[in-house]
Amino acid sequence: MNILKSFFVCGLLAILISCGNSGNKEEQSTATLANEAAKGGQIEFAESVFDFGQVKEGEVVEHEYTYTNTGTAPVILSQVSASCGCTTPSYTQTPVLPGKSGEIKVSFDSNGQVGTQQKIVTIVSNADNRVTTIQLKGEVLPK
């Protein structure tokens, strides 16, 4: 009788374990497909560094960086952040299809920023090059 119970418990465990693995494989397959679908986008900037030259302290410098999706899947920017609070980025919120372009506008407030400046904006996306940067640099002259 104990042997019969042992076989029953082992059989039940085998069924439960195989069901659990089946679900994991399906989740893994779904995750793999999602990752593959996200791959293929590629961000390429027309210019990744903008030198604004010299400005007087207190002036606001604005520049628009244009990028093209040179890949095969849509690119979505998930985060665009600046290295300092004096620099404010805004960017294309909609997916950029292959062959199409998007933009990132950067505004730099030079108030209190005298001297040589190099501001870095970090872009996080679903593209193959997931993290990329652009730069704004120049010199702020005192008032």
Structural features:
Ig-like_fold, DUF1573, Immunoglobulin-like, 143 residues, four-stranded mixed beta sheet, elongated, DUF1573 domain-containing protein, alpha+beta, four-stranded antiparallel beta sheet, 8 strands
How does this structure look, described?
The structure is a single chain. This protein has 143 residues and is an alpha+beta fold. The protein has two domains: 1-38; 43-141, Immunoglobulins (Immunoglobulin-like, Sandwich). Helix content is 26%, strand content 44%. The strands form two sheets. A four-stranded antiparallel β-sheet has the order 1-3-6-5, with no helix packed on it. Strand 7 and strand 8 form a beta hairpin. The radius of gyration is 26 Å and the shape is elongated. It comes from Sphingobacterium chuzhouense. Pfam families: DUF1573. This is DUF1573 domain-containing protein.
CATH class of the largest domain, named Mainly Beta
In the predicted model, the low-confidence regions spanning at least 5 consecutive residues are 16-34
What characteristic shape results from the CA principal axes?
A: elongated
What is the number of beta strands?
8
Query: Over all CA atoms, what is the radius of gyration?
Result: 26 Å
CATH topology type of the largest domain: Immunoglobulin-like
The CATH homologous superfamily of the largest domain is named Immunoglobulins
Strand order within the widest beta sheet? 1-3-6-5
* Total DSSP helices: 1
The biggest beta sheet is recorded as: 4 strands, antiparallel
What is the domain tally? 2
Pfam families: DUF1573
Organism: Sphingobacterium chuzhouense
InterPro entries: DUF1573, Ig-like_fold
Protein name: DUF1573 domain-containing protein
